[in-house]
Amino acid sequence: MPAIVPDRPVIGPTHIPATNLLAWYERSRRDLPWREPGVSAWQILVSEFMLQQTPVARVLPIWTDWVRRWPTPSATAAATAADVLRAWGKLGYPRRAKRLHECATVIARDHDDVVPADVDVLLTLPGVGSYTARAIACFAYGQRVPVVDTNVRRVVARAVHGCADAGNPSPTRDHADVAALLPDDDRAPRFSVALMELGATVCTARAPRCGLCPLEVCAWRAAGYPPSAGAARRVQTYAGTDRQVRGRLLDVLRDNEFPVTRAQLDAAWLSDTAQRDRALYSLLDDGLVTQTADGRYALAGEEFKKDSTARR
């Protein structure tokens, strides 16, 4: 099989000076609790699950409550799936909560309640993909591994390659790009988080604040900010989607201590009954919702008290 050739040249380590970037990061970084000293690898893993496609502001209160309630994998594994789904709240994409619970169970059972440090082992855990595995190895264990998210890809595309955006992801190319930028010393993990912070707060997708950028050399700026060569990306909508309907149905189940009737669920979305049915069936298929023997609905893994109120 022929070797895969990147569609842009692999870069050298001098394009983004570590000294400038790290000095900026120390002055300008956000105060995020999962970046503080003493935060465990498990708590960092929880933050990475929660931050997928979700703004930091929404994650902060949920993460804080979560790690206080379940500070270890075994504590999370001991919770019911329903407890986990309730604690997840309105973060969205609730399958992440289910996978996090499964991940906690595997770590507690197979890894002595310790999050693995090896990227290849991390990749075997439920819900842990390429980015998350490398983020944990880097941010929790201080390893010199490339950590590439959307923000990092955009910074590299602009500062190094002179492109307005990063184009289609290419793990081989993207990891090679970022690996070439990393300092060859213990600054590498800090550099990785600084690069990510730059993309999240300054080199943003739609309104980059180039006047605040600490990089003295940027290929995109030097080229006169050429526009993207590809089609404009469509903004992902939420209102009226199946995701919104799923969220409404889950809200009903989270807010009730006991199983609910189909009529209670139907009242959560009246505008499109076919869409509502589709959303409910998908929740059942995903294992997030279960149907009781008497035909009512509950969060998966829900435990009910055996008293008279359970039949209301």
TrEMBL record:
Catalytic activity, as annotated: Hydrolyzes free adenine bases from 7,8-dihydro-8-oxoguanine:adenine mismatched double-stranded DNA, leaving an apurinic site
Lineage top rank: taxon: Bacteria
UniProt-recorded name of the protein: Adenine DNA glycosylase
Enzyme class: hydrolase
Coiled-coil region(s): none
GO MF: 4 iron, 4 sulfur cluster binding; 8-oxo-7,8-dihydroguanine DNA N-glycosylase activity; adenine/guanine mispair binding; metal ion binding; oxidized purine DNA binding; purine-specific mismatch base pair DNA N-glycosylase activity
Entry-linked InterPro entries: DNA_glycosylase, Endonuclease3_FeS-loop_motif, HhH-GPD_domain, HhH_base_excis_C, HhH_motif, MIG/MutY
Entry's EC annotation: 3.2.2.31
Record family assignment: Belongs to the Nth/MutY family.
Species lineage: Bacteria, Bacillati, Actinomycetota, Actinomycetes, Mycobacteriales
Organism for this UniProt entry: Mycobacterium asiaticum
